[in-house]
């Protein structure tokens, strides 16, 4: 370690890849700490967006501070960090190997929405309300996707998207196949995994390299 001139110490010779499971506040902070230390970080989240339970709270105990006021800077930092690769809407299928040398297989679920074309107008979510599903939205608004378990293939969301953005239609009924067995490997460098599921932090020997 050496001083970088402003009182802090810069990490040297950091090699390896780390997988963090869970994109809540614990997972985001773990990913940022590791990424700022020079590690490549794969942040895997089951939902369509990071933030976890804290992003859903109004205020936090004991200071009653605004949750989003505290977590928003971290959301931006994680999204823009060059050492962090976000893998959302995904599930860990298997982990093989050992600490420092592992292979992970991930099931990445389809959104049925092209996020590169989606403008976030929300018209698809407004149109996609039916009595058959009990009035619940089949489209998730936090980061647009279609819920397969509730979609009745009525096509209303597609029509709403086409009307608003005829040249950049984001919602599609073309079945997107699940991207099965997306592999994260630590082939020529060390690798570790951190599990932050359920707001609990469990470490796989994070100090050892």
Which secondary structure elements does this structure contain, and how are they paired or packed?
Elements: E1 2-3, E2 9-10, E3 17-21, H1 25-36, E4 40-44, E5 59-60, E6 65-66, H2 67-80, E7 84-87, E8 90-98, E9 101-108, H3 123-127, E10 139-140, E11 145-146, H4 156-164, E12 179-185, E13 191-195, E14 202-203
Parallel strand pairs: 3-4, 3-13, 4-7
Antiparallel strand pairs: 1-2, 5-6, 8-9, 9-12, 10-11, 13-14
Helix pairs in contact: 1-2
Describe this protein with a few key phrases:
209 residues; alpha/beta; FAD/NAD(P)-binding domain; Alpha-Beta Plaits; 5-stranded mixed sheet; 4 helices; 14 strands; disordered N terminus; disordered C terminus
In short:
The protein is α/β, with parallel strands linked by helices and 209 residues long. It has helices at residues 25-36, 67-80, 123-127, 156-164; strands at residues 2-3, 9-10, 17-21, 40-44, 59-60, 65-66, 84-87, 90-98, 101-108, 139-140, 145-146, 179-185, 191-195, 202-203.
CATH architecture of the largest domain: 3-Layer(bba) Sandwich
State the CATH superfamily name of the largest domain.
FAD/NAD(P)-binding domain
* CATH C-level class of the largest domain: Alpha Beta
End-to-end distance: 15 Å
Write out the strand line-up for the largest beta sheet, numbering strands in chain order: 7-4-3-13-14
Number of helices: 4
Based on Cα principal axes, name the global outline: globular
Report the strand count.
14
Average pLDDT score = 70
